[in-house]
Specification:
Layout lengths: L18 H12 L14 E4 L6 H13 L10 E4 L8 H9 L13 H15 L6 H17 L2 H9 L9 H33 L5 H5 L9 H16 L6 H21 L20 E6 L7 H15 L8 E6 L3 H7 L2 E2 L2 H7 L8 E4 L24 H21 L32 H20 L8 E7 L6 H5 L3 H19 L8 E7 L7 H13 L10 E6 L5 H12 L4 E3 L13 E2 L5 H14 L3 E2 L12 E2 L3 E6 L4 H13 L3 E7 L13 E3 L2 H14 L3 E5 L3 H14 L7 E5 L4 H5 L9 E7 L11 H13 L10 H19 E2 L2 E2 L1 H9 L3 E4 L2 E4 L13 E6 L5 E6 L4 H4 L11
Helix pairs in contact: 1-13, 3-10, 4-5, 4-9, 4-10, 5-6, 5-9, 6-7, 9-10, 10-11, 15-17, 17-26, 18-19, 20-21, 22-23, 26-27
Length: about 900
């Protein structure tokens, strides 16, 4: 068997398109920042080397991936599987490799299932021992002997037994043969066999072997079942290696052995007291070489990949990350049903539970030049072994128990059941009127301001560079109802404020590039953004004929995650246009290396909100006593997830919350109207607000400790709240709703001011002005905004601060790209890739180098809407420079 090269000198990964993103996400998938991300099931990834490429191309990629996992010694459990004729079952090599050179002070998987099956399969391959019932007994004895040779308590007893044969005759022979061997060998082996039978076959929870072999509850004992496997496969294995039946026999054994290995690598226990159970901090990795079709070892490699694909969907737990490199045959790709994509798209799939294998063709040209080194992963290290930690914990527990026995009053402290964010409803009686809004007037006012500032910027064009950015926005509102559901007005105001700041700075700072802003309406909900983007691309191609200041150097906006804005990002990215987003949060929006989202993505938001719902007292307890007594709340044990089908933002946030929330979940697909839509299996359907109210009330009656997680749009939420208030059948104890930033606009306009039964929590992207944690820069922005727009109902909303900071990011990149009297869009992209950081209105902003993801540790806030100003009940991320340096802000920020 060929061994992996463990040299200190790193190999380089080919610098193919999207390679930098793949490197980043590969390291994150192996060593995620949060433990719960280990529960995702990443897809089988196949990196396909070019046709007729030499074997060195495959080895270069494999070595680059391996080197990142441990240059000198393993930092995470992994192994490289080189397919060769002498190793027909690569699962044997996989299990042996994962158990060798384990990371220091980690608690390695002992792989009990794997080693038992490996011993069984080795015996089957050598020839079935015996016939009839004697086969099962001899198989059991052989496997137990192998287990004893590996040490541990069975090995100690075995070696205490002495020789295999007892002395003949005499008292000593009688004692050794009947008594001593019985105590040290026969009895332990019998107990071990019972345990294996119960664990592998009888147990409803973990009896994976019985399920794999389709054995019923009253099936034969475990070694009889395995002996039957040998009886079926041994005749096939005796045929010529090229015979189809021989290959079927190997495939069956590969499937059984790999199933055993995957069971050992199953879902790691989380949150238990035993420290050994908490020491998997990285994902096991299997790197597989695929030789060209017909080459030695090609069948073995493809057999392993087929087996893994067969087992992955039903795997109870995350399993390893499997990356195959080489030349997969067409038959393999057809059998696996692969999805062909690029490195950039594959990077995002590494963090998703995607059962469909992914093939990424690698180009030939990058192999001909220096590549990119993958930095070694840095998993968490442990100062002490798990045994030492266990001893310390037991000593501390003993001290607590002894102290508690002498001071029983310590145990009498009542639990804290206060409701997070206070008892007050959404609004008190004194604030039960809606805030007056004048949408058309306000929208036109901010457009006039931007137009005036564009003229101010153009005045600088005579002696210096002035450029234009495009801001895509929804159509202007026609009435108040449009305004409360759309954040376009505060977003435009934020853009106008930064443009004014930029123009003021340009008067004294010649390094600043004044920017014009072209606001382009693209329909309600961005429905017309794709044609507008195509027009922009054609316009840019003809821009040499216009004024210099009209040249477009970037795009700002995309405030909503829709399928249209997703396509628009892909189109603009293909044209090389730099883009900075605002409040679009869906992970799926990242369709281009030239797009920089500004807010935390839905994965991060869903994780924080799921932890908040499960840990925080937000649901009013059933059976409250006196009406005037302090309200008591409890964490949400159940959630009703309301989502809108075919809405990118809603589906994305709902699915990711569903993955993160630990309690019971009910999913309702809600879309008003008669247009039919598909309902995924296991979910409910609703087409009217009244129907949705009935479904939610039924869930509350069944499980009172239920919260609603809302991902549908704000207009639908208003319809639901009004229907719930009119119905009134399940509002006595209140209803807790947790949602995204989509609900901020409507909540701040007083739409729910007279709904005392509603406990509303929603996310935002900056701290309220009265929060003591808000940075000086945030407070400065608040004073600026309130001074310009004193009657704005959205002054506590994050839309204006987000657009203000996002425009700041784009203008900084333009400043850095400015050379002489020109600004090239390619240079703006380079400036963004080089990383930008500053203290902004939403907190401390820091974009990583060579990354187009959201800012590192970006501010995420959960607000409780109460009778006065909203209260921040959770503040995560870099809401100030000091907070940005904190590695662990505690739950729910780091759960």
């Amino acid at each position: 068997m060929r061994s992996a090269n463990n040299s200190v000198e790193p190999s380089s990964f080919p610098d193919d398109a999207g390679a930098d993103y793949f490197i980043r996400e590969y390291r994150t998938a192996v060593n995620p920042a949060r433990r719960e991300l280990l529960e995702n099931k990443p897809p089988l990834l196949i990196l396909c080397t070019p046709a007729d490429a030499p074997e060195s191309h495959t080895h270069r990629v494999l070595e680059a991936l391996r080197w990142a996992l441990g240059p000198e010694h393993k930092r995470v459990p992994h192994t490289v599987l080189y397919a060769e004729d002498e190793t027909p079952l690569l699962s044997v090599q996989a299990g042996a490799g994962l158990g060798f050179d384990i990371p220091r002070r980690s608690a390695p998987d002992r792989l009990p299932n794997f080693w038992l099956m490996a011993d069984v399969i080795a015996q089957i391959q050598e020839g079935r021992p015996g016939t009839g019932g004697l086969g099962a007994r001899k198989l059991r004895d052989h496997v137990y002997r192998q287990r004893a040779e590996r040490g541990g308590f069975p090995g100690l007893l075995w070696h205490l037994g002495g020789t295999d044969t007892a002395p003949i005759g005499g008292v000593r022979g009688f004692f050794v043969g009947l008594v001593w061997h019985s105590l040290t060998r026969a009895l332990p082996r019998w107990i071990w066999t019972l345990r294996q039978n119960r664990r592998l076959v009888r147990s409803k929870r973990s009896g994976w072997l019985g399920k794999h072999l389709n054995a019923t509850a009253g099936a034969a004992p475990v070694f009889e079942l395995l002996d039957q496997v040998g009886a079926r496969q041994s005749p096939r294995l005796s045929l010529e290696p090229d015979h189809p039946r021989h290959k079927e026999g190997l495939a069956a054994l590969e499937l059984l052995l790999l199933r055993a290995l995957l069971e050992d690598l199953g879902k790691p226990a989380v949150g238990r007291l035993l420290p050994k159970r908490r020491r998997r901090v990285a994902r096991p990795v299997l790197l597989v070489e695929i030789p060209p079709e017909g080459a030695p070892g090609a069948d073995a490699a493809e057999r392993l990949l087929r087996a893994f694909h067969t087992l992955q969907a039903g795997l109870d737990g995350p399993g390893p990350l499997v990356i195959a490199v080489g030349r997969p045959s067409r038959s393999l790709q057809s059998d696996l049903g692969v999805e062909r994509t690029n490195l950039r798209r594959a990077s995002s799939l590494l963090h998703s539970s995607n059962p469909r294998p992914v093939v990424v063709p690698l180009e030939e040209e990058p192999f001909e030049r220096p590549g990119l080194q993958i930095p070694p992963v840095q998993p968490r290290k442990f100062l002490m072994g798990w045994r030492a930690v266990t001893a310390v914990e037991l000593a501390a527990l003993t001290a607590v128990l002894v102290g508690g026995a002498t001071a029983p009053s310590l145990w009498d402290t009542p639990p804290d059941t206060r409701c997070v964010g206070g008892d007050r409803p959404v609004a008190a009686d004194g604030q039960n009127k809606r805030v007056e809004v004048r949408p058309t007037e306000w929208y036109q006012d901010v457009l006039r301001r931007i137009k005036k500032q564009n003229g101010q910027a153009e005045k600088y064009a005579k002696g210096r560079a002035v450029r234009t950015v495009v801001l895509f926005e929804s159509d202007p509102p026609t009435d108040a109802e449009d305004t409360i559901f759309d954040g376009s007005i505060p977003e435009l105001r934020g853009v106008a404020l930064w443009q004014q700041q930029l123009i003021d700075d340009a008067a004294s700072d010649s390094s600043r590039v004044p920017l014009r802003v072209e606001v382009r309406p693209v329909g309600a909900g961005f429905h017309k953004v794709v044609p507008a983007v195509r027009d922009l691309i054609q316009e840019v191609k003809r821009e040499d004929s216009g004024e210099e200041y009209e040249k477009i150097v970037g795009v700002l906006g995309f405030a909503q995650s829709t399928k249209e804005t997703q396509e628009a990002v892909a189109l603009l990215g293909g044209s090389g246009m730099p883009m900075v987003g605002t409040t679009a949060t869906a992970d799926e929006m990242q369709r281009s290396e030239n797009y920089w989202p500004f807010t935390p993505d839905n994965s991060e938001e869903a994780r924080v909100e799921a932890a908040f719902a499960a840990r925080s007292h937000i649901v009013v307890k059933a059976g409250q006593a006196e009406p005037n007594a302090p309200m008591e709340c409890a964490p949400a044990r159940n959630t009703v997830i309301v989502r809108t089908p075919d809405d990118l933002y809603s589906e994305s946030l709902a699915d990711k919350f569903h993955q993160s929330f630990r309690g019971d979940k009910t999913v309702i697909n809600f879309r008003q109207g008669s247009q039919p839509f598909a309902t995924p299996p296991g979910t409910q359907k609703s087409t009217t607000a009244d129907q949705l109210v009935g479904q939610v009330c039924q869930a509350l009656q069944t499980e009172p400790d239920t919260a609603v997680f809302w991902t549908a749009r704000a207009r639908d939420f208003t319809a639901f709240v009004r229907a719930m208030d009119a119905n009134g059948t399940c509002t006595e104890k209140g209803l807790t709703v947790l949602g995204g930033n989509e609900l901020t606009n409507v909540a701040l306009t007083g739409q729910f001011a007279d709904k005392p039964w509603l406990r509303l929590y929603h996310s935002a992207h900056r701290l309220p002005e009265g929060d003591k944690r808000a940075s000086q820069k945030t407070q400065q922005f608040v004073r600026l905004y309130n001074g310009n727009y004193p009657r704005d109902p959205w002054r506590q909303d994050g839309h204006s601060a987000v657009s203000y900071d996002a425009f700041h990011v784009l203008s900084r990149a333009v400043d850095e790209a400015h050379t002489g009297n020109g600004v090239r869009r390619e240079s703006v992209v380079t400036a963004l890739k080089n990383g930008i950081s500053f203290d902004g209105a939403t907190g401390f902003i820091r974009f990583s180098e060579f990354s187009s993801g959201p800012p590192v540790n970006k501010t995420l806030v959960i607000l409780r809407q109460s009778d006065g100003e909203p209260t921040a009940v959770v503040a995560c991320g870099a809401y100030s420079q000091k907070a940005g340096k904190e590695k662990n802000q505690g739950p729910p920020c780091a759960d």
